[in-house]
Amino acid sequence: MSDPVAHRLIADLLGRVGDAAAAAGVRVDAAHDFEIAAGSGAVEVVGLCESVVRIAQGLQADAVAVLDVRRREVVGESVDERELCRSLFAEIGLARQVSATAGESTYRLTRDLADHPEAHALLHEGRVNQSVVAAVCRETVFLDPQRRAEVDAELAPALAELGPKRAAAAARRLVIDKEPHAAFERTVRAREERHVRLRPELDAMATLSVYAPAAQLVAAWQRFDNEASARRVDGDPRTIAKIACDAAVEALTGIRVATDGSAQVGVEVGVLMRPETLYGADDASAVLQGYGPIPGELARQLATGERSWLRRFFTRPDGHRLEAADPRRRRFPAGVARLVRAADDLCARLWCECRVREIDHVLPHARGGESVLDNADGDCRADNLVKETRGWRVDRDHDGVLTWSTPTGHRYESRHGQHAAVARLSGTSPPTGTWSPMEARLQHLVTVSRR
Ligand SMILES: [Zn+2]
Cα of 399 to ligand 1 centre, how many Å? Predict the structure, then answer.
C-alpha cells in the first residue's frame, strides 16, 4: 500500500529546499570578485543551511499533524486520550532521537500552529525560526483560536525580524491588551509549573535552577546579594558572586561552605568507585550520583569526609553478588535499584536523557523476567508508562542489545545504553569469598578515619 500523503510531504520538502538552494545559487553568482575572495559564497551556504532547517521544521509539523489524524482514525473514539498522547509523544521522540518530553513539545507546537497560520507559512518558507514561532505560541496559549489568529495576523509582518525574546514580548503585549484578566490568570496557572532542575556542567560543577514565581526569586536573590555585600564589607576576601553562591548553598543545605568553596557534604550513596580508587591504588574515574563521572581524587575526598559513609554495592559481606538475591520476587532488591541509578541516572531509552524515576524489568515479570541486575533498567516516567501501552514492546537479546518496537512498526536498537554502564561497574565486584584483603584493609582504614 502506498502513502500519497507522505510522498506529497517529501516532494514538498524537496521542492522548497530546491527553491531555497536555487535562490542561494543566484546570490552566489551575483557576488563581486572581492566578495567571493572574502568568503561570500560560504556565508550563502551557512544561511541556506539555516533556511533548510526552518523549512524542515515547518514540514515536520505537517507530518506530525498527519500522524495525529491517522492514529486517531486507527484507534477510534474509545481510546484513552492520555494513553494515546503518551504513545504519540514517545513515537515522535524516538523518530527525532530525543526524549518523550521533547517529542511532546513538537506535538504541542504542531497543534498550536493550526491557530497561527501566518507564522506557520513563514516557517514553511524558511523565513522564521521555529524557536520564534514556538515563543509566540507559548504566549498565546490562553487565548481562544480566533484571538490567537488575530495575534498571529498582527505579528506576522514583523516576525521575520524578531528573535524569540522580542517575539514573545510583542505577543505578550497583544495578549494582555486583548484579555487583561487572562494575562493575570496565566500568572496563577504558571505557578503549577514550578520546579527545581540540576544541570551537570564541566569540571565537577553543576547548575541548580529554580523555576518559581518571579517575586519570590527576586526576594531570594536580594537576600543572597545583601548578605554577600555585608560580608564583603566585613572583610571577606571572596568576590560578591562567590559569597552569594556560598550563602545560597548554605541556605539550601545547612552545611557551611569554606572560603575555598569546599564543603563537608554528606555523600549518601553519592559516590560510586572501585575499591582500588578509594584506597588510592589507582586513579580510575568515579561516578557522583546525579552528576556523572568525576576524578578519582575528588571522589576520595568526598568519600572519606567526616560526614560521608560507604555502602558496599557489588557484593554482600558474605561475598554473594547482590543480583543473586531472590530473583523470583516481583520487585528489585534495593541494592540493584540503587546500583542502576548510581551507575547512570538517565533513562535507559535510546536518546532519552530524562532522570530515572522507575527501576523496571526489561523482560516483564509477567513474562518470566527475573528481578536481577541483568534484567534491570532505569526509565523516566513517560518511557516506563509507554512500554506498557498498546503497540509498544521492548526486548533485550543475549548480547544486551535493547530493541524498542513502536505502534507504527519502527524499531530502535540500543547497544551502548545505561545497561552497559551498570555492567561495567558491576564487573569490578570481587569474585567470591568474604572480604578481599583489599576490602578488609579499606574497612580498617575507613573505621580508623571515622574515630
Ligand atoms: Zn525516558
Answer: 22
Distance of CA 272 from the midpoint of ligand 1 (Å): 23
Amino acid letter for position 273: M
**Cα dist. 178→149, 157, 183, 184, 380 in Å?**
12, 19, 9, 12, 40
322 pLDDT more than 70: no
Q: What is the pLDDT of residue 216?
A: 92
Task: State if pTM tops 0.85.
Answer: no
Kind and range of the H or E run holding 414: strand 411-414
**57 CA to middle of ligand 1, Å?**
23
Cα(353) to centroid(ligand 1), Å: 6
Q: How far is the CA of 381 from the centre of ligand 1 (A)?
A: 7
120 and 74 housed in the same domain: yes
Answer yes or no: do 93 and 127 share one domain.
yes
pLDDT in tens, 18-52: 999 999 999 999 999 999 999 999 999 999 999 99
Distance 105 CA to ligand 1 centre (A): 15
Most confident of 70-84, 92-106, 308-322: 92-106
Name the pLDDT band for 359 (thresholds 50, 70, 90).
confident
User: How far does the centroid of ligand 1 lie from the alpha carbon of residue 40, in Å?
Assistant: 43
How high is the pLDDT of residue 444?
Answer: 59
Q: Where do we find the cell 545560597?
A: 248
Residue 294 CA to residue 301 CA, distance in Å, equals 11
Cell numbers for 170:
510583542
| 397 shares its domain with 440 | no
At position 344, the amino acid (one-letter code) is D
Rounded Cα distance between 312 and 338, Å, is: 11
User: 93-124, pLDDT tens digit by residue?
Assistant: 999 999 999 999 999 999 999 999 999 999 88
Domain residue limits at 401: 322-426
Q: Per the structure, how many domains does the chain have? A: 4
Ligand 1 centre distance from Cα of residue 345 (Å): 11
Same domain, 59 and 172: yes
Whether 239 and 308 share a structural domain: no
Calculate how far, in angstroms, residue 412's C-alpha sits from the geometric centre of ligand 1: 14
> Rounded to the nearest whole angstrom, what is the distance from the C-alpha of residue 291 to the centroid of ligand 1?
17
